[in-house]
């Protein structure tokens, strides 16, 4: 914040609020971070869409300040499409961009953004727009239905798994096994627990090794075709997922 900028004071609108800043330009990111912190909010920052997805899984976010064009030609708008893919309501989203035509604004709003501010922006206008969006917000996103571990993404609501953004072809039971293993992130899963959760109709029967082994084999076959894909490891303590990428 420069010596000529107005000094911000804590604002009740920002109390208890978490703002995710997705911005690859250091100076622009600093402006947003400084304002939010001065106003009493909490800030998260990343410069990639994948980084934003990780933070959204790990934290409850009330507002996203999203740069439309990120480093390496990455599109910030891809984050809005991700919310659609996982069938989850996004937090309030304010797009920042140097693309200032009406068509650019309309595209961002059509994809689910709530407001748009052109770069370079006046910090006072930025604050005013953030406050307006926070007052309008009526819910907080709960993204626990999406599991992310490295390049593996498991969307439990619509039963889709992705590896480096590409869909993995899986049977429903293979998806259920992968989902459980992903949630544990390398920890062991007993065959008994797997049986109870995946084969719920038969959960009161002893685990059927032949059934379990067949499904594990199918899952391994689906993962084997992926470039440097995850591995299902069977050991005395149970099953676990291993990711080397």
Provide the fold topology:
Layout: E1 18-22, H1 26-38, E2 42-46, H2 49-58, E3 63-67, H3 77-85, E4 92-97, H4 102-110, E5 115-118, H5 123-136, E6 146-149, E7 152-155, E8 160-163, E9 166-167, H6 172-184, H7 191-198, H8 209-224, E10 231-235, E11 238-242
Parallel strand pairs: 1-2, 1-3, 3-4, 4-5
Antiparallel strand pairs: 6-7, 7-8, 8-9, 10-11
Helix pairs in contact: 6-8
Word description of this protein:
By secondary structure, the chain is of the alpha/beta class. The protein has 2 domains: 12-136, Response regulator (Rossmann fold, 3-Layer(aba) Sandwich), CATH 3.40.50.2300; 146-242, Winged helix-like DNA-binding domain superfamily/Winged helix DNA-binding domain (Arc Repressor Mutant, subunit A, Orthogonal Bundle), CATH 1.10.10.10. 38% of the residues lie in helices and 20% in strands. The protein has 8 helices and 11 strands. A hairpin with a 2-residue loop joins strand 10 (231-235) and strand 11. The radius of gyration is 22 Å and the shape is elongated. The two termini are 39 Å apart. The model is unreliable at 138-142 (pLDDT under 50).
List the secondary-structure elements in sequence, H or E: EHEHEHEHEHEEEEHHHEE
What is the approximate shape? elongated
Structural class by SSE content: alpha/beta
CATH superfamily of the largest domain: Response regulator
Radius of gyration: 22 Å
What would you say the CATH architecture of the largest domain is?
Answer: 3-Layer(aba) Sandwich
CATH class designation of the largest domain: Alpha Beta
When the domains are counted, the total is: 2
Proportion of residues in extended strands: 15-25%
Low-confidence stretches: 138-142
Helix count, DSSP H or I runs of 4 or more residues: 8
**Could you tell me the mean pLDDT?**
87
Distance between the termini: 39 Å
Give the helix proportion (percent range): 25-40%
Q: How would a textbook summarize the main sheet?
A: 5 strands, parallel
Number of DSSP strand runs: 11
Strand order of the largest sheet: 2-1-3-4-5
Do you know the CATH topology of the largest domain? Answer: Rossmann fold
């Amino acid at each position: 914040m420069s010596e000529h900028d107005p000094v911000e004071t804590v604002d009740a609108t920002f109390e208890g609020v978490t703002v995710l800043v997705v911005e690859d330009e250091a100076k622009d990111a600093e402006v947003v971070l400084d304002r939010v912190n001065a106003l009493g909010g909490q800030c998260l920052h990343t410069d990639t869409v994948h980084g934003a997805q990780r933070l959204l899984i790990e934290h409850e976010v009330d507002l996203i300040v999203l740069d439309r064009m990120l480093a390496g030609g990455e599109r910030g708008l891809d984050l809005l499409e991700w919310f659609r893919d996982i069938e989850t309501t996004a937090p309030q989203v304010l797009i920042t961009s140097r693309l200032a035509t009406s068509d650019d604004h309309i595209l961002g709003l059509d994809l689910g953004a709530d407001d748009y501010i052109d770069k370079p922006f006046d910090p006072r206008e930025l604050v005013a727009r953030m406050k307006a969006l926070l007052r309008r917000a009526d819910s907080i996103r709960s993204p626990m239905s999406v599991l992310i571990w490295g390049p593996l993404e498991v969307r439990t609501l619509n039963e889709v798994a992705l590896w480096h953004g590409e869909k993995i072809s899986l049977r429903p039971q293979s998806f259920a096994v992968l989902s459980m293993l992903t949630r544990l992130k390398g920890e062991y899963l007993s065959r008994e627990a797997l049986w109870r959760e995946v084969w719920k109709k038969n959960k009161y029967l002893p685990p059927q090794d032949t059934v379990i082994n067949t499904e594990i084999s199918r899952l391994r076959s689906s993962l084997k075709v992926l470039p440097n894909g995850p591995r299902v490891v069977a050991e005395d303590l149970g099953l676990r997922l291993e990711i080397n990428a």
